[in-house]
Specification:
Strand 6 (114-117), helix 4 (120-123) and strand 7 form a beta-alpha-beta unit. This protein has two domains: 25-225, Ribonuclease Z/Hydroxyacylglutathione hydrolase-like (Metallo-beta-lactamase, Chain A, 4-Layer Sandwich), CATH 3.60.15; 228-289, Winged helix-like DNA-binding domain superfamily/Winged helix DNA-binding domain (Arc Repressor Mutant, subunit A, Orthogonal Bundle). The chain contains eight helices and 14 strands. The chain is of the alpha/beta class. It has helices at 71-83, 98-101, 104-111, 120-123, 186-198, 216-239, 245-252, 261-277; strands at 25-29, 32-36, 49-53, 60-64, 87-92, 114-117, 128-129, 135-138, 141-147, 156-159, 164-168, 203-206, 282-284, 287-289. Helix 5 (186-198) packs antiparallel against helix 6, helix 6 (216-239) crosses helix 8 and helix 7 (245-252) packs across helix 8 (261-277). Bound molecules: zinc ion.
Length: 291
């Protein structure tokens, strides 16, 4: 029988702020200020985290994931820029989802700052399309462009000189990240988790939820184990006789409210695509079988 024991999340013993208790603005380290956008939801947790990155005294800052184009959020970002005595010199975006990218072009225009992203549509006219491995010399520091496809094909993380990594939606401050079919790719996602793990990050600054500073490697190990757990659950459900995507969801997500099952089905399809590519299952439309 496949291994189906749930891995435990190392963060349960950490002293993380309760959901909804993240401060509006926080200086995480000399290089980084975080500004929380006022868009909390089931998907965005406390809201989207917008980051300002720059060497203190450089008079400059890079804005990473401006988030929603919301006047109150813009005011908070401008206040944080003023507190850093910095002007915005570039806008970077981890991926094209609106809760990260919506304000990129309007605020880039407002600040006279170039927008940069992996997706040309996000970078916009006059923007810059980022390549994996690029080193961006901006605001008196260097940001490394780390490809992290999986949640979306265009997803990037940014490695700072301090060793911290801005991970967007690749890793969340609470719970696990969502990889859904057809946008997401579980194989790419797992490779991206290992890539960030190999960087030996000193901290993970997430697109949503609190900063992870205590043992970032343990969180990445947990994310990998959680994915393996989900695969094991699906294989075990197939052994028990579930033969369709819906039956698999009803078995594996029995304890989860039914309203979340459609999302669970998209996540299940993404995992099944990996298992099918590896020859562990055969998927034919909604029908799923062991080979
Ligand atoms: Zn997001």
């Amino acid at each position: 029988m496949p291994h189906v024991r749930a891995p435990s999340d190392p963060r349960v013993t950490w002293d993380l702020p309760a959901p909804g208790a993240l401060p509006r603005t926080a200086v995480l380290e000399p290089l980084v200020t975080r500004v929380l956008a006022p868009n909390p939801s089931g998907m965005t947790l406390d809201g989207t985290n917008t980051y300002l990155v720059g060497e203190p005294g450089s008079g400059q800052a890079v804005l990473v994931d401006p988030g929603p184009d919301d006047p109150a959020h813009l005011a908070a970002v401008e206040e944080a820029l003023a507190a850093r005595d910095a002007r915005c010199v570039a806008v970077l975006v981890t991926h094209h989802h609106g809760d990260h990218a919506e304000a990129a072009q309007p605020w880039g225009a407002r600040f006279g700052a170039q927008v940069a992203a992996a997706d040309a549509a996000v970078a916009g006219p006059g923007g810059r399309v980022l390549e994996p491995g690029e080193r961006l010399r901006l605001a008196g520091t260097v940001l490394g462009v780390v490809p992290t496809p999986g949640h979306t094909p265009d997803h990037l993380a940014f490695r700072l000189e301090s060793g911290a990594v801005l991970v967007g939606d690749h890793v969340l401050g609470r719970g696990t990240s969502v990889v859904t079919h057809p946008e997401g790719d579980v194989v790419a996602y797992l490779e991206s988790l290992r890539r960030v793990h190999d960087l030996g990050p000193s901290a993970l600054y997430c697109g949503h939820g609190p900063e992870l500073t205590e043992d970032p490697g343990a969180v990445l190990d947990y994310y990998l184990a959680h994915r393996a757990f989900r695969e094991g659950q699906l294989l075990a459900a197939l052994v028990r006789g579930a033969g369709t995507v819906d039956a698999l969801v009803a078995d594996v997500y029995a304890e989860v409210p039914r309203a979340l099952w459609p999302a669970a089905a998209q996540s299940t399809r993404a995992t099944l695509a990996k298992l099918a590519a590896e020859g562990h299952v055969v998927v034919d439309g909604d029908r799923v079988a062991l080979p």
